[in-house]
């Protein structure tokens, strides 16, 4: 075999190995700057007021790296590498993680609506739809019969209104008893019979082995629609609440500014910590945001706000970084702004 043919063969083998290795992911997650997206096209309050400026959510891009993207992340100042255990819970599958992130987004929308409508003095009601399956315990009766994302709305043919009602009903059963669960999966109603079993960590309690939360819709007038598609996680909740509130009231609290930000929102209006604040600052700066709201965490030494200020200084942005602990604080800050000319 000639040296040229050997060389070509080695090059081909090397190229094949490179191609194959690009599909092998490492046990890490890499986050990088995502986007800053205007909320007005995403959120629509029926007959809501228009605004001269805009509120924007900010995102990060998160995924599992191969060896090449891992090396690139190592060399990048504003890409972060996390071990799987820092992102996914112990024994949580990729599917369960995705379902949990979508549920957190759903909860953040619910809380944002509650906060905004209550601030505007508009009543908030609820329509309960059952319980939402977040995860399945391996080895328990639900394993192999239910999936993360299933919505259970009947047990033994009886409709219930909350996760507490469901848990109370199941908890009085005896080991070996069977219950019939009616649930919805991908818009199809199904039914399954499952035996209850004691939990390994507490033999005095029985269940089917699912982690669950209430599945409910907020009922408000005027109606509001929030189209988040496949965006997951709770970190846009605070910005949702500002956009919803601004469409509910006649006064435009954007004052003509481009306002980005991040933070979870609780039903009482508390703004909470999120991950990836550095990457979100970069995303907001790229689209020319004037103001960025960052969770202050009551002045904690390692707060999101302090990390945001450091990143803003590092990249030399003119964007104003504003610390915020509550929805009310943000509203007062905005109302005191001099309108943009």
Instruction: Give the biggest sheet.
Output: 6 strands, mixed
Helix count, DSSP H or I runs of 4 or more residues: 9
From the 3D structure, determine the CATH topology of the largest domain: Ribosomal Protein S5, domain 2
Give the total of domains: 2
**How many β-strand runs?**
18
Percent in strands: 25-35%
SSE pattern, N- to C-terminal: HEEEHEHHEEEHEEEEEEHEEEHEHEH
Strand order of the largest sheet: 4-1-3-14-17-18
Per CATH, the class of the largest domain reads Alpha Beta
Helix content: 25-40%
The N- and C-terminal alpha carbons lie at a distance of 77 Å
Q: Uncertain regions: pLDDT < 50 for 5+ in a row?
A: none
Write the layout of secondary structure elements.
Layout (H helix, E strand, L loop, with lengths): L2 H19 L6 E11 L4 E3 L8 E10 L3 H9 L4 E4 H4 L6 H26 L5 E12 L14 E5 L2 E2 L3 H9 L6 E8 L2 E8 L1 E3 L2 E6 L2 E10 L4 E3 L10 H12 L9 E4 L2 E2 L5 E2 L4 H10 L4 E5 L8 H12 L4 E5 L2 H9 L6
Parallel strand pairs: 3-14, 14-17, 17-18
Antiparallel strand pairs: 1-3, 1-4, 2-13, 5-6, 5-12, 6-7, 6-8, 8-9, 10-11, 15-16
Helix pairs in contact: 4-6, 7-8
GO biological process, one term: proteolysis
Enzyme class: hydrolase
Pfam families: Lon_C, PDZ_2
What do you see in this structure?
The protein has a 6-stranded mixed β-sheet with strand order 4-1-3-14-17-18, with helices on both faces. Strands 5, 6, 7, 8, 9 and 12 form a 6-stranded antiparallel β-sheet that branches. The chain folds into 2 domains: 179 residues, Ribosomal Protein S5, domain 2 (2-Layer Sandwich); 93 residues, Roll (Pdz3 Domain). By secondary structure, the protein is an alpha+beta fold. Helix content is 32%, strand content 30%. The model has no long low-confidence stretch (mean pLDDT 89). Strand 8 and strand 9 form a beta hairpin. One of its GO terms (molecular function) is peptidase activity. This is endopeptidase La. Belongs to the peptidase S16 family. InterPro entries: Lon_proteolytic, Lon_Prtase, PDZ, PDZ_sf, Ribosomal_Su5_D2-typ_SF, Ribsml_uS5_D2-typ_fold_subgr.
